């Protein structure tokens, strides 16, 4: 229980740290629907792990959706310090996996492309930022430190450190990432990444 409360406190602090508009932890605790949605998810996910509590878990998730505009399936696996900025319109599917210190802006979607059961939603590494309106669709892998541009549609894997923009998303490696530095040693890598 103490660990659970600590994780909720980290979510609060992550929002305060990442949003320049946030003035205090109290303000974040009271006025940030993205934080409320993450807290509700953490409760629902705990319930989801008990097979008999799966229906109540879905109900918690739906009440949170009605209150915050954020729908996170309780079966999704989400790391620590997720920050959902502005909340409204975010969807995270059942088999999505999200690393630590990730930011999701409003109306972003971690969705599926298939109606089949099984892994059908994306896996995000640590410190990924998903811009407003971006969609990441299917069981794709998005590496650590990736930035997905606003309104991008990602349907293929994105290497760590890359920036993905456009529809469908094009991959760009910023010159400062280790992968881009490797590419300078091996120009064939650069040709693959830079559009
Ligand atoms: C994608 C993003 C991370 C790129 O940031 P960056 O690395 O600083 O990149 P730059 O601004 O230097 O832009 C690089 C190129 O991508 C283009 N670009 C940037 N963002 C884009 C987007 N969302 N969609 C399409 N193209 C985009 C730029 O026009 C530029 O093109 P050019 O090389 O032809 O001139 C950023 O633009 C973005 O979309 N962040 C999401 C922020 C967000 O959702 N904020 C919501 C706040 S409420």
Topology:
Elements: H1 2-18, H2 25-31, H3 33-48, H4 54-68, E1 71-72, E2 77-78, E3 83-85, E4 91-92, E5 97-98, E6 103-105, E7 109-111, E8 123-124, E9 129-130, E10 135-137, E11 141-142, E12 147-148, E13 153-154, E14 163-165, E15 170-172, H5 178-185, H6 187-193
Parallel strand pairs: 1-4, 2-5, 3-6, 4-7, 5-8, 6-9, 7-10, 8-11, 9-12, 10-13, 12-14
Antiparallel strand pairs: 14-15
Helix pairs in contact: 1-3, 3-4, 5-6
Could you give the distance between the termini? 49 Å
What structural class should be given to the helix and strand makeup? Answer: alpha/beta
DSSP E strands, number: 15
Compute the average pLDDT. 91
Family: Belongs to the transferase hexapeptide repeat family.
Catalytic activity: L-serine + acetyl-CoA = O-acetyl-L-serine + CoA
Subcellular location: Cytoplasm
GO molecular function: serine O-acetyltransferase activity
Verbal overview:
The chain contains six helices and 15 strands. It has 195 residues and is of the alpha/beta class. It has a single domain, classed as Hexapeptide repeat proteins (UDP N-Acetylglucosamine Acyltransferase, domain 1), CATH 2.160.10.10. A hairpin with a 4-residue loop joins strand 14 and strand 15 (170-172). The longest helix has 17 residues, at 2-18. The radius of gyration is 17 Å and the shape is globular. Coenzyme A (COA) binds next to strand 14.
